[in-house]
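In response to a reviewer's request, we include the raw inputs and outputs for one of the modeled complexes. The two entities were modeled together in a single run.
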Amino acid sequence: MNLEGVSAKLIDLEDDSLETVNHLFCQRKWTDGLPIVPPTETRVAAMLRCTDLPAGTILGKMAPRWRPCDVHHVAINAVMAGCRPEYLPVVQAAVQAMLDPLFNLNGVQATTNPCGVMIVVNGPVARELNVNCGFNLFGQGWQANATVGRAIRLCMINIGGGLPGVGDMSTLGNPGKYSGCIAENESASPWTAYHVEKGFDPSVSTVTVIGTAAPQNVIDMSGDPTAIAESLARAMIVSGSNCMYIEGEPMVVVGPVHARHLSRGGFDKAALRQYLWEHGKVELGGLHEVSRNIIKSWKKRSVKVEDGRDVLYVTERPEQIGIVVAGGEGGPHSAVLAPFNGTHLVTRPIARSDGTPVHSVQELMH
Amino acid sequence: MPTVTFVGTPFLALANYESRALGFYDLSIVEVSYPITGVAKEEARRRATAVFDKVVQGLFGVSNEAGQPVGAGQVEWNVR
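The model returned the following structure tokens for the whole complex.
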């Protein structure tokens, strides 16, 4: 692999033990605090064999340090995170999605909000790479989920400069900032897959990035379609949620059990989205005056006057609410991903450098 | 155009980090106590009054007593 022209520097160490390498990387704040896989030339070259972009290709500039984000840098961080080389196309697409100004990465990185990045993978590549879409998908236990999400975080640290207290001003953070990556459970879903709703062919694979606080679980044991929809709507706009204060595009992760009940009750994604929007609202009159005024200032596009009363909606328009079906079978749980201010749900296809989508990551290997 | 940027105290390092990354080495930064959101009008006025002279200095390029330009250079640049 010809790495000529790339901007990363090689470091020669007399002692290249795992302990020494990790000590050095921790000292230089090049990690998330966990041990990394040393990004040797050999490992990085193997990673770069899974993209058709030449090393040295700049994907954009990453906030808040606004460094040029070279695909080579992305590959290095993917190695460090423990990614298998075939995961690189997902990591690369997620980075490209984050660099879309609609995502507001500068805000996501530097805010005092606890938000991090959640990735949703759709399409055949999710199955090919065995990205967990079932039991415990936000949790531990799956190599693709754990390492792809971690690679994104390491890129945000090492390329974007998201160092706590300097480039990352999150007051509290959340454990999902170590890693956040799931897939939609398309086989368990009664509805159209998220990427197909967005206009992609089902054979195309996509990555969607969400600037979000930690997943907020929504339990509803009723088994009643309307009751479940009501629980989801109310959960979207509760005291303390990002959705109460700031404009953004939330993602609702509907568990398979809830999805089946909702489908049985006649809901498809469009109908559920409309219901969530119509019922995910709160009258501001019941809030403290100071809070009410802040909300009316920060989230004014979503405040509507109805019968002389100020009513706060979860979003300005229904179509701003994303819905995926994901999770294990057997439990009456769903989740709300409450977004950061000004962040949009951004979806990118996993594709060749000329934009042609691939149906398998094997097509990118060389 | 003469410009002054208000930065809350905890964000000074970030302001330096980002302004330099974007090439604004001489950006005039005026530190204000934080948080701002939700403070009463009287408190906001008090804080504004407290930094008024620095804003004028920043806008008109006046140096401080030590002869240094008012701006980002006053803040420690101590991140990698």
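As requested, we also summarize the result in words. The first strand of chain A starts at residue 58 and ends at 62. Chain A touches chain B at residues 28-29, 63-67, 110, 161, 163, 165-167, 169, 290, 294 (CB under 8 Å).
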